Amino acid sequence: MSSELILRNARIVLPDEIVEGSVVVRDGRIAEISAGAGTVGEDLGGDYLLPGLVELHTDHLERHYAPRPKVRWNPIAAVLAHDAQIAASGITTVFDALRIGLDEDSDLEAREMRDLGNAIESSLEAGRLRADHFLHLRCEVSAPDCLEGFELFKGDGRVKLASLMDHSPGQRQFTRIETYEMYYRGKTGMSEEQFRAFCERRMEQSRTHSAVNREAIAQMCGARGIVLASHDDATLEHVDEAAIQGVRVAEFPTTAEAAKASREAGMQVLMGAPNVVRGGSHSGNVSARSLAEGGTLDILSSDYIPFSLVQAAFALGETVDHISLPQAVAMVSKNPAEAVGLGDRGIIEAGRRADLIRVRVDEHVPIVRSVWREGTRVA
Predict the structure, then answer these.
(1) What distance in Å separates the CA atoms of residue 224 and residue 176, rounded to the nearest whole number?
(2) At 20, is the secondary structure helix, strand, or coil?
(3) pLDDT band for position 13 (50/70/90)?
């Protein structure tokens, strides 16, 4: 027996326009879109109807699993808590970022990342989750155990995305030692002497491991069909290296120069939604809003605040003259879905998955009122 859902009296955000009308869902797929208020179905009261949001890079899960130093939560319980917040933020497809290659300031272990991956996958199989989850491996290429951690996910079909990153001092996000010092000393409470020794160790690890690990992971991702991203590129040399290694997503480029070069090299440029909402980068790097104004922004990621994704879409639609709401919504739905090869979702169109969210805007703040995944309400 087929199932049907009708959502009427909505402002439907289509790829190129907003239409007041109704959407009919049958068996988890969008069947019809029609103009006019309609008289049958659930009345959305003039609220916006958006495609479900697609999140490619969130570090949010780890905060539920390790909420304090030395504290560990049950992995399945952590996944469920993370999933609930993700879905309530309007995200129906999420790529959970797991660390591969651990910094010495972290008390996490590589096997714990595999445990979290297992908890996600077993929860999907058991039907516990509201959103659709995939894995994104955040590969810290300067770490000595990076390749060992990557191999723990060999053959895992949920791994669809991997990013190459180097957070050692003097590199990419932390080209200025002052910014690095403010971040790490504030985070760890190290003395100045301890911090200097820490920097020396991290820089030596980068010199020893980064190039080798980066090339090895790029080759493995190419062989396994995993989409590759490059994290925090700052220079033309970084972009050239990424292009040679087959990178398709430029994640959080730190300069306008790197963002422009990445786009010219055929990569999709991804920036943080919190950067848009706050009006600038928390670490002093290029503003996502300025890249949007310059036409070099393709994808937004919630990064560390799940709700920032829907906030940023509406903020861009309001504040950047040449970006309409449908274009801004594409940055959090259609564009990320296409970047990782998920062609069945990301827009409201007949035949696509009925991943949908109902949004009302109150005092310039979007309120996610309902969320459907494949036509079933999940939030």
Answers:
(1) 36
(2) strand
(3) very high
Q: State the chain's mean pLDDT as an integer.
A: 92
CA-CA distance, 162 to 340, in Å (whole number)?
11
Measured between alpha carbons, how far is 294 from 304 in angstroms, rounded to an integer?
25
CA distances for 115 relative to 75, 81, 102, 154, 268, angstroms? 7, 16, 15, 14, 31
Q: How far apart are CA 54 and CA 340, in angstroms?
A: 10
Greater model confidence, 23 or 106: 23
Token reading at 264? 């010219």
pLDDT at 21: 97
- Give the position of tokens 């309001």: 318
Topology annotation, domain 52-346: TIM Barrel (3.20.20)
Domain ranges of the chain: 52-346
Bridge partners, 53 (sequence order): 91
Give the integer Cα–Cα distance in Å for 102 and 115: 15
User: What is the rounded average pLDDT of the residues 314-320?
Assistant: 93
Burial of 278 (0-12, 13-18, 19+ CB in 10 A): middle
The strand pair at 29-35 and 356-362 is best described as unpaired
Structure tokens at 243: 């292009």
Going through the chain in order, the beta strands assigned E by DSSP cover 4-13, 18-26, 29-35, 42-43, 48-51, 53-58, 91-100, 132-140, 159-165, 227-231, 249-251, 268-272, 299-301, 356-362, 365-373, 376-377
> CA-based diameter of the chain, in Å?
71
User: Exposed/middle/buried for 25, CB within 10 Å: 0-12, 13-18, 19+?
Assistant: buried
At residue 180, the pLDDT reads 64
pLDDT at 183: 63
Angle at the Cα of 137 (from 246 to 244), degrees rounded to 5?
A: 15
Q: pLDDT by residue (tens digit) across 138-175?
A: 999 999 999 999 999 999 999 999 999 997 776 655 55
In this prediction, residue 38 carries a pLDDT of: 84
